[in-house]
Amino acid sequence: MTETNPPAAATLLRQFHAVRQHSLALAAPLSAEDQGIQSMPDASPVKWHLAHATWFFETVLLMRQMDGYAPFDPAYQYLFNSYYEALGPRHPRPQRGLISRPSAQDVQAYRRYVDAAVERLLALAGPDELAAVAPVLALGLHHEQQHQELMLTDILHAFSCNPLLPAYRPAAAGPAPAAQAAPLRWLRQPGGTVDIGHRDNGFCFDNELPRHSVLLEPYEIADRLVTCGEYAAFIADGGYRRPGLWLSDGWAAIQAQALRAPIYWLDAADPRAGSNDGNDGGWHVFGLHGLAPLDAAAPVVNLSFFEAAAYAEWAGARLPTEAEWEAASDAEGIRQLTGHVWQWTRSSYDPYPGFRPLPGVAAEYNGKFMVGQLVLRGGSFATPAGHARPSYRNFFPPAARWQFSGVRLARDL
Amino acid sequence: MTETNPPAAATLLRQFHAVRQHSLALAAPLSAEDQGIQSMPDASPVKWHLAHATWFFETVLLMRQMDGYAPFDPAYQYLFNSYYEALGPRHPRPQRGLISRPSAQDVQAYRRYVDAAVERLLALAGPDELAAVAPVLALGLHHEQQHQELMLTDILHAFSCNPLLPAYRPAAAGPAPAAQAAPLRWLRQPGGTVDIGHRDNGFCFDNELPRHSVLLEPYEIADRLVTCGEYAAFIADGGYRRPGLWLSDGWAAIQAQALRAPIYWLDAADPRAGSNDGNDGGWHVFGLHGLAPLDAAAPVVNLSFFEAAAYAEWAGARLPTEAEWEAASDAEGIRQLTGHVWQWTRSSYDPYPGFRPLPGVAAEYNGKFMVGQLVLRGGSFATPAGHARPSYRNFFPPAARWQFSGVRLARDL
Amino acid sequence: MTETNPPAAATLLRQFHAVRQHSLALAAPLSAEDQGIQSMPDASPVKWHLAHATWFFETVLLMRQMDGYAPFDPAYQYLFNSYYEALGPRHPRPQRGLISRPSAQDVQAYRRYVDAAVERLLALAGPDELAAVAPVLALGLHHEQQHQELMLTDILHAFSCNPLLPAYRPAAAGPAPAAQAAPLRWLRQPGGTVDIGHRDNGFCFDNELPRHSVLLEPYEIADRLVTCGEYAAFIADGGYRRPGLWLSDGWAAIQAQALRAPIYWLDAADPRAGSNDGNDGGWHVFGLHGLAPLDAAAPVVNLSFFEAAAYAEWAGARLPTEAEWEAASDAEGIRQLTGHVWQWTRSSYDPYPGFRPLPGVAAEYNGKFMVGQLVLRGGSFATPAGHARPSYRNFFPPAARWQFSGVRLARDL
Amino acid sequence: MTETNPPAAATLLRQFHAVRQHSLALAAPLSAEDQGIQSMPDASPVKWHLAHATWFFETVLLMRQMDGYAPFDPAYQYLFNSYYEALGPRHPRPQRGLISRPSAQDVQAYRRYVDAAVERLLALAGPDELAAVAPVLALGLHHEQQHQELMLTDILHAFSCNPLLPAYRPAAAGPAPAAQAAPLRWLRQPGGTVDIGHRDNGFCFDNELPRHSVLLEPYEIADRLVTCGEYAAFIADGGYRRPGLWLSDGWAAIQAQALRAPIYWLDAADPRAGSNDGNDGGWHVFGLHGLAPLDAAAPVVNLSFFEAAAYAEWAGARLPTEAEWEAASDAEGIRQLTGHVWQWTRSSYDPYPGFRPLPGVAAEYNGKFMVGQLVLRGGSFATPAGHARPSYRNFFPPAARWQFSGVRLARDL
Fold first, then answer.
1. Which residues in chain B touch residue A161, judged by CB atoms under 8 angstroms apart?
2. Which of A92, A360, B135, D96 is deepest in the core (most CB within 10 A)?
């Protein structure tokens, strides 16, 4: 959270442009119609993400730190507030998909308007102002990066509800996937007193602080992620039919919804899956590149915590705690820490000892969600470069299936 | 339903073009994003209406009566089937708003493709084929006209969920509304044996047949519709707080949803309503022209049957039965029969004695909905010219509030 | 509704005692625990029925027509009001099963207290008072009789939720059921102008009036009810899997609840059904006598309107309208009019022309339910003797399955 | 969980009788009707608790460790299984209140039957058998004690749904409550490495193990519980109207249900509360002794975790973690550790490092609930003597309001 020696205005501006531009690039493959749809209350339209990230800069930065700033449209304060009670009433979350107006074009204009204001603010700021602006700007950029990942998780869910199963973008040509993943290796970790939490003076969220010591028993952690092939074996072995493998709420959820596989897996009998390619169980998997035969060597993704924990139980292992995960993040031989899928941990999302929320309106950023959720660590292929850290605490409810979330195993010694 | 001496191909083609073109004209004020939104399961996106009406021609006419017709896209059979069980599975109704693809442009192309095929079919048809085609074509056109009205009711509901309250189209400049409606006059009707149901050989739906006799007591019917000013007086007199005025299910509905006025009425305290113009109660009403102060002389619209019946009770009157309505439709002095708002009757939507559904797939058109709904008669400003008839039976569930439905009173002698 | 020459006090008292005693006799096989349970919001505990029927006499008769009457317990006004808005707030219907206090014994005491007061009222009444009391007393007795039938329908539903499937009372020893019903005969009815509605000066409910003329086409009506064996044939022929047989709402209901048979039918695979007796399809049926193999010759019972209408469609027939039913009620050869099962008609429960609700608090008795329900005619084995009439209009929503409701067929000529 | 040197059969028998007898004593003030009611899916009828605790002995002890034991009634295996998937299907939890049969008397007979069998088992057991039986018997007794507390929480909730607000038992005559609690004192705790978890060889549940070390920062903990008077001040200060005090899910819950006070608090405007006694805010509180004016000095009870955490935030403090609570349990000056109300902690109910569930069917006892719940520590006035320990981990979902749960504050140094 602390940034000593704030970077020069030019550096800030370069970072700002890069992040803002990346959001547009992510939206580029999508039509205005695509950008408007919302497939469930937990997800948001891409257009809404584009506007909300902009609203954050307008509300938290420009309206508070730029003299004479005139909001683009007062109605946007209501439309694009996500959950900040201190910032007034807001459009109901489940109805974000009904906002055909402002249009996608209007939202682009909103982005340009706010971008120009931020540029002016940075251009005119003296060193003291820059020191005040820099941390808010950094928060806004990391905030937008979080929504960049959500733009992809949410459009994937929306497209999965379309019987045409559209691809967000075609797969790049490239070598065929590996037939099989390398064997999983267990990395022995000594435990003892370890320090976790954000360690240096770069950016972090409030929930990563204070850095503090915890005591760990010795343990082992897997060098790599669980693969689709391994998960298919779990299914084939009756994984979704054996209550003893599941937490009680997880079993209730899969019974109530008659779940038999991860959310985007289509079995051989599904008419959308086309011909059976003879892979493990005949599964096809829907993803941002569209529908493809299951890639047995790829990390399994889009699991709920319940599914992750049941798999671990079946595998005779368990999920790591978040402290174990963080302590092992520089272990020799560990792979796939980030850039593939988020990794569910066996840690509830509780405050660190001595936790203090950010001051001001950003106090609602993290702390008020610290109940009923589980921590994920690492980062996914959709996490923007430079966004995550080993101390980064992502969190979702245990039933959430639409995130890019998978499994790394751990076990007691 | 029967058309003796089918019109020449040229006549059919002219009718076809006129109706098809009108749908496009209705969609013209709407962006592709507007056309995609669905605000509740009972409503559909405009784009879906445009495609579904086309699907009807494709499925019921072209695929059955045109040799060698190749469907535009087989997936559309699934996407744009509304409720025809005999025509296979279909996309879930509550998820019609998620279909960002096919795009609005794709749907336009679909329309052109089907239009061209219908043109070819008519151009090449001999007299016998024409005789076979004509009734199906007529059904398809009346079907599309029904969806033309729904395009407007549904987009109005969708826009009402947008805090910006967009106008579908600006109000035409014109004379100010009348300050007050003419006094209501009661028209005395003799009752006795009257014939109701479709009478000639022009088009009608199956539910208007057979024409048959009913016995009516003498009654009186209002010469005009109930106005917004009259309805505002009902509200001001505690209409929504007096259970004795309401049917039991109606009272339960207004309690459960805390209703205090018609669906699109905003009271003076509503921040969206702007300044209070000092009209009856300070009401503003949202409609296709956007938000406007209540027009006291205009027919009240967007009422549920429950609201209509409660108003009638309060007014010391009742709703007419559908037979009374139809029998009075040529009474001297009667006004506003059609072209303003649909008129709820006190008749449940039951089959006429001897009712037979249409043959073939169109059997599902009307008959299977004959339970739990109430009949509306007349026609609204949104009903396409030439679509309705005095024998026309519109129907909706009693709680439906988003249709262009209002009240004509009747009373016993 | 009108009773000229009111019977002497002694006659009224005898009727009162008989009806009141019958309620106790119906409750006698049930423990206090049995009498307290409520298995769904539409049903009520037996204890509640016993108290509510008493509350009706207390509130509508004693508190209004007996000087100095002191209510048994003021709280009972709240606890045992069913739906009379004019009589103040009331205990929520879905929570009637939580009222362990007052106990079943308290309710017995309540009954005795009110009985004694009614006795005093009758003993002391002069002719004018008697004339005023008599119609209210009659209404109260017919009201209690309605609840007598509901006591049985409701306890049967409650017991059906108990995996032990308790019998309300053992079946009387008797001859084995007939192997097969007599062949159904069609009785030809001339139609024309017929009068329906209550005809004499005996008691009737307000919804049976005014007697009025209707015009009927000629039709045929079945001489007897549809049997369980016939209904089993409908199931065996795919009745629950063919959407074309069902009204739209009916098909939606059986899909949503995965229905495959009437509510109390257990198929051969049900572990509660015990051994398969080789009857039609191996069905067992749960009833007041407990579980028994399907009796093929017995009238089918506990059908919804949707099931009744689908059966009729399958049988190439239809349900009679209520006017047809009433007109045929004195047809030669007609059987099983009452005393077996209520018979769904194809008539929505609409007001008769000129309908006027009862004056006073009883205005809420019938009229406010006149939407969304279907009329049943006849009477069941559970209808108290002397309660029903050919003009009697019973009514329930189309999805209601727990009433003693079955089918008599009709067809056009 | 481990019991070295199992006590003699006579000791076991004495313990067994004492616990079993206590359940009957708790049920004694309740009629059979009272014992049958279930006011929400989370609660169970008293009769069900009495039977389920007995089923546990039958299933886990007698059917596994007593040769030739014949179950009392095979149907009870289905009826009284709570959540043990490994033990077969079970009666749906929300329908436990419909089981009028078996009767309360039948359940008493079931208890006697099982008691007699346990007595025989103990009488005939040799030392080896006794060693095998003792831990299962101990588990069964602690299990029954848990249900003893639930009998009281559940009947209180059920009675709160009865407009008569019955008292479970009258308050004992005694001195008037203290007008005010002693001032809260903060006890400074050093933190550092502390050991938590069960420490000796007496009974404990699997979730209290393994005992392990944790690192704590220095902190302060309140010497006593938060009182009703303090909580009333929180309400008076807008506690239920200020979103900034609440966790996000908590705020959503109080908005959705329009909560303004603890579940059993009635404000001065509530007609059930009778006259206003002029206490803090005019509150009345419903409890096992019926309705009484708020006792300002008494510990506040029946709070959800959300309410507890919002109060702590308002008070400028926080809830202790479970490790802090346990470490402070022998702190000098600490009061009201147990015997008053359970104390919500700021710890999610996660497994201890190295946690292993009990073997066999009891594996489902605790571990499968370790997600989405919060830990409570201490024990309430309703916790049977000898049941709880400082290492005892009670747990409930954060929205649960019907437990005897309150608040002890902590704060950072």
1. 95, 98
2. D96
